[in-house]
Design goal:
71 residues, flat, 51% helix, mainly alpha, single chain
Length: 71
């Protein structure tokens, strides 16, 4: 059995791998739902991956999350 840590590999860049704590570790430790995790993911990576587009994705998901809340 191999002891390779999957967090040492990233497909499609290194914008998460170079962070002190990878987003997936934070999401799993805090049992965050998909939408909240995705919002955080986009905000964390926007400077090193897709710029404003990632912030727009985060904003879109926040708008969806707000629309689904029962106030």
């Amino acid at each position: 059995m191999s002891s390779i840590n999957p967090l040492d590999t990233q497909v499609g860049g290194d914008h998460y791998k170079n962070m002190p704590i990878q987003p997936i570790e934070f999401f799993m430790a805090n049992k965050l739902p998909f939408v909240e995790s995705s919002i955080i993911k986009y905000v964390l990576r926007y400077k090193s991956k897709n710029g404003i587009e990632d912030l727009q994705k985060a904003k879109h998901l926040i708008d969806i999350l707000i629309s689904k809340e029962d106030f």
